[in-house]
Every structure is written in structure tokens, then in C-alpha cells.
Design brief:
By secondary structure, this protein is of the alpha+beta class. It folds into 2 domains: about 210 residues, Multidrug efflux transporter AcrB transmembrane domain (Multidrug efflux transporter AcrB transmembrane fold, Up-down Bundle), CATH 1.20.1640.10; about 80 residues, Alpha-Beta Plaits, CATH 3.30.70.3400. It contains 13 helices and 6 strands. Strand 3 and strand 4 form a beta hairpin.
């Protein structure tokens, strides 16, 4: 069985390649299906906004010997507050109760009843109320932050790569990551908190970083693509994805493993809401970001540039050269099959073999 390092060298040199760009219609179909399913999940069951976004009253009881949800649910039923309320255990000694917005007298009465039910002192119970004005302000700022992020990212990529098509391809891939992350989050039933927004912004940065690395390799491979007739723009772009594939996988694994540990600890051991919320967002978003940078960003870029005159003319010259060497029918079949990566020009992008050899020391 070939090792990961050997596979990386094979992919980098072009001796072995995976058809990321040639099979882009398959990746598009899968992406559309996943996006539709995620969109449906956002509608039903829908997102579960936390108190920071919808407003309401929250009571936290600490120092509880038996942090079960039963006593709190019983009191909420007695007070007629069960509808729209939630009870969550936090760690091994805390319980959080969230309800609709209550006036001060009723909130104090509920806090006192909860203290009695859990047999703790009044000092172990904290109560707070978040009004609709503050919650709507948090929501608007979260949306504004995402919009500003997209605008800045698009402008930065446009300036760095000097083409708006790379910016559009990267933003479409980022949009894919957001929709999938939000859809899975809705299916989980976890509350949408400020930690969730922080996680979304974090995974967008992670996905963007991976995409920029691939795009930078594409720019390097296609810098003077129209001066040669060995490989088309599509083939050189596919080669770039192959050359960065192992790096993307390694980076994803290194990033996802600790996040998965945080998710397990936060959701099943500590019951920490903030830790659980941000860990789930990061876990789903990092996986989606890695997949989009490999299977979507580059194919989208190739499609956006496929009608450019320079790309079309160069592809025709490649076809003509192959026709002269192997016959017109075979050349057309080769183009229809869209080779994943053409052999490299000697002395260019040779990977490990291009590195200087160490001289052995004379004894």
C-alpha cells in the first residue's frame, strides 16, 4: 500500500492525479443536493435562537447536588411558563432555565422557587432579563458582520489575484460552507448564541485560507499557460488541486481532531453551552470548508474562465498539437475525457526531485 508521503509526491509530480476538475458536474450535483437539504433544515425544524437573539429571562442555579431538569420543569409547569421555556444542565452542578421575558417581581418569585426546589442558597441563583431591543441589536450586528466579512474578503482576493473570477469562486465556496454549517446546526437543535456567530466567522477564515492556498498554486501553474501547448488551463488547474490535496487533508485532520475533542467534552461531559455551540460550528464548518476548497472552488474558477478568448484559443492549440501527434479522433477523445493532469515540463514543478541533492561527506 502506498504511503501518504509517496502519494503526495505522485500527485505533485503529475504521475498520478485525481479528477477534481473533470468531474465537476458530479461535485456540483452533490453540493446542490446538500445545500437544498440544509436549506430545508433551516426552515424545518429551523434554528433555535438563544436568549441573546430573541430576548427573554434567564436563571442560572449553581452548586446543585443533583443537576437534573425535572425540578425546574415542574416549577415552570406550575407557573404556566412551560411553553417557550427550556431547561439545560451545565456541567455537574449547574442548571440554566430560560423563559419568555418576565417582570422583576415574577422573575424574583421564579428564582426563589428554583432555589427551594434545588435546595441551594439564594446567592447561588442569578437572574437576568434581555429585552427585545438588545436582542435585535445583536442580530443586526451579527448579520452586518457577515456581510462586511464577505465584502472585505471578495475585495482582498480580487486585489491579490488581480481577477474578480477568483473572488467570485471563493465567495461561492464560502456560501456553500455557511449554508451547510447552519443546516447541520439547525438539525442538532442547539441554541444559536454569540458563540455560534464567532464559530461561523472562524470557519469562514479557515475555508478562505485553504482556498487561497489552492488558488495561489493555480496562479503559479497557469502564469504563462498560453505560451505552451502541452496542457490546457483546466488541466493545469486540476494539477494545482492535486499538488495541494495532501496538504489540505493534513491541515484538516490536524484542525478537526482537537475540535472534535472539544465537542465531545462540551456536549457530553461538561454540558457547557458555549463550548458546545462553538465546537459544533467549527467541526462542521472546517470539514465543509476543506471539501469546498478542493471540490468546488477550483472547478467554479475553471468554469468562470472557460469562455475567455485566451483560454479557448490555447485549448484549441493544445487539441491541434495532440491531433498532429496522435490523430484527430484520439485527440478529440482525450479532450472529451479531460485529463486530470498532464505530465509536467521537465525542470518545472518536479516536487521532491527538484530539490538540491545533498553531497555525501568524504570520510
Amino acid at each position: 500500500m502506498i504511503s501518504l508521503a509517496a502519494l503526495g509526491n505522485e500527485l505533485y509530480s503529475g504521475r498520478t492525479s485525481l479528477p477534481f476538475v473533470p468531474r465537476r458536474r458530479l461535485w456540483y450535483t452533490i453540493a446542490v443536493v446538500v445545500i437544498v437539504v440544509s436549506a430545508v433544515l433551516v426552515v424545518k425544524p429551523g434554528l433555535n435562537p438563544g436568549i441573546d437573539f430573541k430576548g427573554g429571562s434567564e436563571i442560572t442555579i449553581t452548586g446543585v447536588a443533583d443537576p437534573s431538569e425535572g425540578p425546574a420543569n415542574d416549577i415552570l409547569n406550575d407557573e404556566g411558563l412551560s411553553a417557550g421555556s427550556s431547561v439545560t444542565t451545565m456541567g455537574s452542578s449547574s442548571v440554566r432555565v430560560q423563559a419568555s421575558e418576565l417582570d422583576k417581581s415574577r422573575l424574583d418569585a421564579l428564582a426563589s422557587a428554583l432555589a427551594t426546589a434545588y435546595r441551594v442558597d439564594a446567592g447561588n441563583v442569578s437572574a437576568t432579563t434581555i429585552g427585545p431591543t438588545w436582542s435585535s441589536d445583536v442580530t443586526s450586528k451579527a448579520i452586518r458582520g457577515l456581510v462586511i466579512f464577505f465584502l472585505l474578503v471578495g475585495g482582498l482576493i480580487w486585489i491579490y489575484f488581480r481577477t474578480w473570477k477568483m473572488a467570485v469562486a471563493a465567495l461561492l465556496a464560502l456560501g456553500h460552507d455557511i449554508i451547510i454549517t447552519v443546516g447541520v446546526y439547525a438539525a442538532s437543535g442547539f441554541e444559536v448564541t454569540p458563540a455560534t456567530i464567532i464559530g461561523v466567522l472562524t470557519i469562514l477564515g479557515y475555508s478562505l485560507y485553504d482556498t487561497v492556498v489552492v488558488f495561489d498554486k493555480i496562479r503559479e501553474n497557469t502564469a504563462h499557460f498560453d505560451t505552451q501547448t502541452r496542457s490546457t488551463y483546466s488541466e493545469l488547474a486540476n494539477l494545482a488541486v492535486n499538488q495541494t490535496f495532501i496538504r489540505s487533508v493534513n491541515t484538516s485532520v490536524v484542525g478537526v481532531l482537537p475540535v472534535a475533542s472539544l465537542l465531545v467534552v462540551g456536549a457530553f461531559i461538561l454540558g457547557a453551552g458555549t463550548l458546545r455551540d462553538i465546537a459544533l460550528t467549527l467541526f462542521i464548518g472546517m470539514i465543509a470548508g476543506t471539501l469546498s476548497s478542493i471540490f468546488l472552488a477550483t472547478p467554479l474558477l475553471v468554469d468562470l474562465r472557460s469562455r475567455e478568448r485566451s483560454v479557448v484559443d490555447q485549448a484549441e492549440r493544445v487539441v491541434a498539437r495532440r491531433a498532429a501527434q496522435a490523430g484527430d479522433d484520439e485527440a478529440q477523445a482525450a479532450v472529451a475525457a479531460a485529463p486530470a493532469a498532464a505530465p509536467l515540463i521537465p525542470g518545472h514543478h518536479l516536487g521532491v526531485s527538484a530539490q538540491p541533492k545533498r553531497r555525501r561527506k568524504r570520510s
